[in-house]
Give the backbone structure.
Amino acid sequence: MSLSSTLFRKLPLTAAVVLAFASHAQAQSLVEMYEAARGYDAGFISAKAQFEANLAKANQTLGGILPNIALAASATRTKFEFRPDTSPPPATSKLYGTGVAAVTLSQPVYRPSAWAAYRQGGHLLEQAAAQFEAAEQDLLVRVSQAYFDVLTSEDNLQLVQAQKKAVGEQLASAKRNFEVGTATITGVRDAQARFDLTNAQEIAAENDLRIKRLALDLAVGLSNTQPKRLANNKLIDTPSEDVTTWVSQSEVASPAVRQAKLGLEVASLEVDKANSGHKPTIDAQLSYSGVRNDGGSSTLQGSSRVFNPSAALVLNVPLFAGFSTMYRVRETVALADKARSDFENARRTTAQATRTAYFGLVAGLSQVKAYEAAEASSQSALDANKLGYSVGVNINIDVLNSQSQLYQTKRDLAKARYDVLVSNLKLRQAAGTLTPADLQPINALLAP
């Protein structure tokens, strides 16, 4: 069990405050933003509080198997009057006090339902830890996705602006060639249409970046966040394990599978608790009580003390409970069957999610290599079209199409690189092994 599974455990609030003041001055790394989110994200904080509540609830089951000790005390003051039926009646009046104190210890000796509840408490504790771990992994992926969404939008805006500049230069060239009679008006209109299109794309890209930054600000609790960019184009290596290994690991480590498995064990113990309703219970009791009579009593003269130590073994045998126990057993058996099906569904779903994440990561890495080759080819095609246009072999639209293809390839390549980094985290999340330490290799790729 790992409450945080993390090497960054103690930063949260101070890191958020420092980063809030520093956000205008410098860019933040992925690890810094994750640490800020730990102290701000409402969903994560709620999961942490739920974990602590479940921990306390699980420990409550100790009360059913440990001794219970109680102290009881009372004090009374009594006025006694005796009036016989004689004439004249010689009335007698007496005032006395009584003090009683008792200490009782009760130890369950045989209570099957209490021991079943105690074992349930251990499983509930593990289940709470798995729920908290799932919330932590979800926060890791959400912050990382928002972080790289901003970088993707920044790259998209920069490339659109670069494309707009290139199209503007091509438009100016087309106008000059038209004026000197070496090009037709069609080339000018094609360039103008492409320039207007990139202008609209620039507006859309600026708005998309604004939205993505707001989403990141909301995720980490900072304002005007500025993610650090990748220092180079190096990516995380292809997973060394095959997909079968990842799937096998997910069936053991995945928080979703663990929660479902523990839920099945809790449901099975609930059946045992229900069946214990037909069984007897035995409790051992020790008691020590004392009574002090101050001033005697209605029948005794003078003060006195009485002490009563006792020991007892209490047997309770249920005979008939109006069929409630029988139907409670049927209910718990049905719920155990449901928990068994839920566990199998969680295992299958997690295995499928792990396969999807694995092949997605492998395909993403291959896609990056393909885009890198496409980028080089697109650059060569643009150079060739520019040369052909300068000597009159190609027309303006050929250059514009080559430019559009090159910048589109650059955008796709940048996004594919970021997607690979996030896919690596999603694979580990699906397999149930994701921890904050897995951010470090990605953090090392960012610009210092």
